[in-house]
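Journal club prep — side note

Before the paper discussion, L.F. wants everyone to see what a predicted structure for a comparable chain looks like in token form. Sequence:
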Amino acid sequence: MAFPQPCTGLALFNRALRLWRGDPLTGLDSPWLNGIRHGLAMEHLVAELDRNDLALARGRHAGLLTELTARAAAHPLDERVTAQLMLVLYRCGRQGDALDVYDLLRRQLAEELGACPARAPRELHLQILTADPALATPAPAAAGQSAQPLTPHRLPAAPRSFTGRARQLAALSEAMHTPGATVVISGVGGLGKTWLALRWAHENAERFPDGQLYVDLQGLTCHPLASPAVPAPAPASCPSPEAPRVPVSLGGG
């Protein structure tokens, strides 16, 4: 289902996020459980960021500052977190701090990954530098008037410890030059297929301006006797950015 108005979606997101009770499976340690724990944490983070997009679209930025500051410290290379924090700081009258946040992201990406920020945070940085009126707090929507649809960004955070694979990343970029191309990354579980796909997806997010979706087929994370999920219905179940999210996890191998 799609939420009829952003305020409805925002209220439902807040209700769902209040059900989170801290880190799951605490006190338990195994590679499988650690993968499940990490995947759930990433789902929670993406849900928070989806909620933040709705709040920002409604001009409710002030209440996000403390939470986003903590998230940026915990996920310093997550460009979506950084972009949201930049926008919140700018709308709170802290243009210099917003620019400092971008500069920190730029330096950390260069030092740790040898990469540059994606197009979205670069463009936001330029908008902040020029005090673009488009960044102003939106006026409250009239009663019964829906806000502009938001672009879905459903990727889990990019893996921080990813290194190498330059040849494979280049092959993915080359394959995607063909319009409508579909690429399959195959191999046994645990080789890093999911991390490779996520690294490439984050570096090339601007190629997909209509949004990005992530579907966890539960091939490795589901119960050993259960069947993996079927991908076909997943995009159809997400008709808008405000619809229930596709399950997100890093457990796909």
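L.F.'s comment for the group: The radius of gyration is 19 Å. Keep this in mind when we get to the figures.
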